[in-house]
Amino acid sequence: MWEIGPILRALMRNKVGAVLIAIQMAVTMCIIVNAVHIIVERKALMARESGIDEANSFYITSTGFAPDFNEQVTVQEDLDMLRRLPGVVSAIQINAIPISGGGWSQGLQTEPGAEHDGAYTAVYMVDEQGLKALDVELIAGENFSPTDVRWRERSQSDWPDQTIITKAMAENLFPDLPYQEVVGKTVYINDIEPIIIKGIIDKLQAPWIGWDILENSMLSPEKTLFSSSRYLIRTEPGRMNELMPQVEEMLAESNKGRIIRDPTSMPDTRERSYRSHGAMIKMLTVVMVVLTLVTALGIVGLASFSVNRRRKQIGTRRALGASQGAILRYFMVENFLISSVGVLLGAALTVGLNIYLVQAFSLARIEWYYLPLGMAILWMVGQLAVLGPAKRAADIAPATATRTV
Amino acid sequence: MLTMNNITKVFRTDLVQTYALREFNLNVGEGEFVAVTGPSGSGKTTFLNIAGLLETFDGGSYSLDGEDVSHLNDKARSRFRNEKIGFIFQSFNLIPDLNLFDNVDVPLRYRGFNSSERKRRIEQSLEMVGLANRMKHLPSQLSGGQQQRVAIARALAGEPRFLLADEPTGNLDTKMAHSVMDLLKDINEKGTTIVMVTHDPSLAKQAKRNIYVRDGRVSELHEVAAFAEEESQTTAKASNG
Amino acid sequence: MFSYYLRLAMLSIKRNPILSSLMVAAIALGIGACMTTITVNYIMSADPIPSKSDKLFYVQLDSWDPNNSADADEYSLPSQVTWTEATNLMRAKKAVRQSAMASSGAVIEPPGQDAKPYNASIRLAFTDFFPMFEVPFLYGAPWSHEQDQAREQVVVLSQETNDKIFGGENSVGNSLTIGGNVFTVVGVLKQWEPMPKFYDVTTGAFNEPEELYMPFLLKEELELPNGGNTNCWKTPDGEGFKAFLQSECINFQMWVELPDENAEAAYLDFLNSYAAEQKAMGRFQRPINNRLSDVMEWMEDQEVVADDARIMLWLSFMFLLVCLLNTIGLLLSKFTGKAAEIGLRRAVGASKGDLFMQHLVETGCIGLAGGLAGLGLAYLGLIGIGTLYGDFAKNMTSMDLTMVAVALGLALLSSIAAGLYPTWRACNIAPAGQLKSQ
């Protein structure tokens, strides 16, 4: 009924064409599955949340230059002004911006002394409005009080005696304790300087999206006097774009002894930080689509040729009583057999390339179900591609058998 | 001109060996017009392929134009075909993409003539078959008889010593077949040796000598001294009917 | 004969226009994809200073934490040096040329009432920086060694900065207020954009060069802020800027020019003995481990070629492979379709060699057409990458003549490689079998 025997024997007599298609399908599958794997991985990276109210937050830099520039006074005035501005939910001075690419890191350890290892964390210097401006939730302990917040000079190296850390950091430092119990614990910064953990927040990402401990962050109750200040401003929903130029102008007008620069929205920052991932996803998508098209067209081309070459044979079969369906089926089954060899080889190649990518570029392994999925897709592509030529074959008139040439 | 001694040709498949020719002996002299006949599967075509250096053989010896061609390599055989042999086929085998001029040009190109020499020969040979005015036409624009004339022009353009024809009128109607045969006879008159393979005895009669092949051997020799025009016409008609 | 083959090739291509364009398209896509990624990789891995990249060496010293190495493995070295090493090595002056350097930033107050102050990036360096890296000058010249030592407030402007502040005029001798201090302009650079920005890749190998250049020791004098990355394994002892400079924090790069291997060996010896001296003073508590990397070694070490670019390179080569397999299949079909013609040509005296050449020319034509189309696609591909990556890839998406030649060569080579088997099959068609009508 399915004529697999004769089809196979006919294929064996014209091995090269079949082998070419099989290899092509194998390599195509190998690329597509690995590309999908990379895309899924990157999409997962891009889907991570920074923890802050990205859609409604922006930041802006103020750099003093005038000889009489008083940073402490300016920061206080700026913050008062910003916090009074209608539409602003909260504004803080902060030393670094989550997921922006630049920031501070420090090691915290549970035992004092240089000989002990610690866990690294991103440091955000904020005041008591930090939680509100960053839109993070305090899940244990307490927020900083205004009196906790100190001023930090540029080359100052000591630390305030309390901190709020993320849940991830708490679990990193005290893997055996539920995070609630971490509140009140003392950890050490700079090997020996004790800090008490005052509170735990749910989630706040570090500035470096490539960091493997991205959710290790700590808040330090400080305002900085580094001559350059960055303000993070969280607005009411939907008002960010309107407030950005307003804030820029307001700050620039209020004090001529400094420059106001680089107002940047969080969505822009995210786009910029993740741009290369986004670009990779788009490139891989294009490669996959074009590749599938090329392979499909190749199958169409070869099948059409093989149909043309076998016109007479097909006519004869029809004359001998083969139905149109039988002819159609012949080509579909033939393609299915070739595809099967191709996708099996493809599965091996896919795993091979993945092993290479894992080793050379520290990508993750592919999930097992990618293989059957990829195979099924390639089978389908093959069947769809051969459908046209097969239909044309089925349309060959039985009378062709009796015609010469 | 052509001498075959005990030529043997075996086709091997996994299961069987088939002798296409066994101890095949033939001698064709300069200027002869020989027809080789025989039933289907007798070995006519194998003979023709070997005679035309298109195929190698397994045993015996073959000399053409005084040269032993048994052991020539592919390149030398190509050269030999190009310079000394002209082919005419049942299905003409013109290249459909090339116009008449370019079709006749094909063997001359491989001969390495310069362009003016090629042009001269092409025009001359097309002139001879009466198609000089249609040089720019494509084969598909011609009738079968005209196409075969072009094929003959192509065979003659290199001025071969030896012409091999394989059922040259097999795809033609009577009238055209007749004129093609006339043309071949003309060419033979001018000194070119012709060996024609046909399964059609009436056509064979028009040659000067007939050879009958059966089971891969030459089994009978017919000498045909002369022929009458009327006779050939009636036999041709009969064979086509 | 070549022109004859060329004509036959054209006829043959015209005969199956769909098949032919399928082949051209397949090759074009493969070449286009490959060339796009090759170009990006080529630019990323380009030698930024070919004339002397093997004579310039990046200095690394293991001044790191006795308990932990600077990076993943035990022998990892810190990627920058401390202020102490930077100034000590400069004082020792053991190389032909040498410059410690750092990046920084300050507010420029351009002269004139309307001009707005803005923040400018600064490269702090010694005067050797300019001849060492063959930095071209439009006006003026580098400051002198004496000015380096005297910590004079002199500045060299990038061409862009000079255009912006002084309208492109020769500004040598003019004053400029930078970070509240008055500087004298001593030189203006000619457009200089090394790709990659090899002399400091800490914040991105393809960033723009800095806008201002000034003597390194002004860092201490004017307490200029740290640019780039600062890493410390130990907190500075004490407070203040001086304490930071004297700390084990690394924020500085050190380059030396060494003319030959002897000089290189001698300099490494010097570094090792320097490290031993420091050991005696209680620093450098790790095993002595110093390294000199020339420009290309340093680029390799810093993995200047992005992983994504390399992954895409691999994938695009596999893509090309698929396209070529495709072409092989189509050519096989096509040449099989020409069996009768091939048989006829063989019969009338064409040798296998003749037919091989004829079909090779045909494949070559298809390859060349594919290559040209591929070049166009690569151009589009690079524009595409340009839009996808924005200013990240600003300087990475232009093709030079070498790349064009590589593209065409690759196209021709790969199409001929693809054509070899079909061609070989074609010219081995037994002539006798094709001449009988079926």
Notable features of this structure?
heterotrimer; B: 241 residues; alpha/beta; Rossmann fold; six-stranded mixed β-sheet; four-stranded antiparallel β-sheet; 8 helices; 10 strands; globular; disordered C terminus; C: 438 residues; alpha+beta; 2 domains; six-stranded mixed β-barrel; 11 strands; 50% helix; 15% strand
Most extensive protein-chain contact, per-chain counts: A-C, 65 and 61 residues
Supply the number of helical segments of chain A.
Answer: 11
Which geometry of chain A do the CA atoms define? Answer: elongated
The low-pLDDT segments of chain A are none
Q: What is the chain-wise order of helices and strands of chain C?
A: HHEEHEEHEHEHEEEHHEHEHHHHHH
Instruction: Describe the global form of chain C.
Output: elongated
Give the percentage of residues in beta strands of chain C: 15-25%
Element order, helices and strands of chain A? HHEHEEEHEEEHEEEEHEHHHHH
Structural class of the secondary structure composition of chain A? alpha+beta
Separation, N- and C-terminal Cα atoms of chain A? 30 Å
Can you describe what's shown?
- The complex is a heterotrimer of chains A (405), B (241) and C (438).
- Chain A contains eleven helices and twelve strands.
- Helices cover 38% and strands 26% of the residues of chain B.
- Chain B contains eight helices and ten strands.
- In chain B, β7, α6 and β8 form a beta-alpha-beta unit.
- The C terminus of chain B is likely disordered.
- In chain C, β3 and β4 form a beta hairpin.
- Chain C is an alpha+beta fold and 438 residues long.
- In chain C, α2 packs antiparallel against α14 and α11 packs parallel to α14.
- Chain C has two domains: 174 residues, no CATH class; 246 residues, no CATH class.
- Chains in contact: A-C, B-C.
- Chains B and C meet through α2 and α3 of B and α1, α12, α13 and α15 of C.
Task: Detail the topology: elements first, then pairings.
The complex is a heterotrimer of chains A (405), B (241) and C (438).
Chain A: H1 4-13, H2 15-47, E1 57-64, H3 71-84, E2 88-93, E3 104-109, E4 119-126, H4 130-134, E5 138-141, E6 150-153, E7 162-166, H5 167-173, E8 186-189, E9 193-201, E10 217-225, E11 228-235, H6 240-254, E12 258-265, H7 266-273, H8 275-309, H9 311-319, H10 324-361, H11 370-394
Helix pairs in contact in A: 1-10, 2-8, 2-10, 2-11, 8-11, 10-11
Chain B: E1 2-12, E2 17-28, E3 33-37, H1 44-51, E4 59-64, E5 67-68, H2 74-84, E6 85-88, H3 100-111, H4 115-128, H5 144-157, E7 162-166, H6 174-189, E8 193-197, H7 201-204, E9 209-214, E10 217-223, H8 229-240
Parallel strand pairs in B: 3-8, 3-9, 6-7, 7-8
Antiparallel strand pairs in B: 1-2, 1-4, 4-5, 9-10
Chain C: H1 2-15, H2 17-44, E1 56-61, E2 81-82, H3 83-92, E3 97-109, E4 118-125, H4 129-132, E5 137-140, H5 145-150, E6 154-157, H6 159-166, E7 175-178, E8 181-189, E9 212-215, H7 218-222, H8 241-245, E10 250-257, H9 261-280, E11 290-294, H10 295-301, H11 307-337, H12 339-347, H13 352-389, H14 401-427, H15 431-435
Parallel strand pairs in C: 4-9, 6-8
Antiparallel strand pairs in C: 1-10, 1-11, 2-10, 3-4, 3-7, 3-10, 5-8, 6-9, 7-8
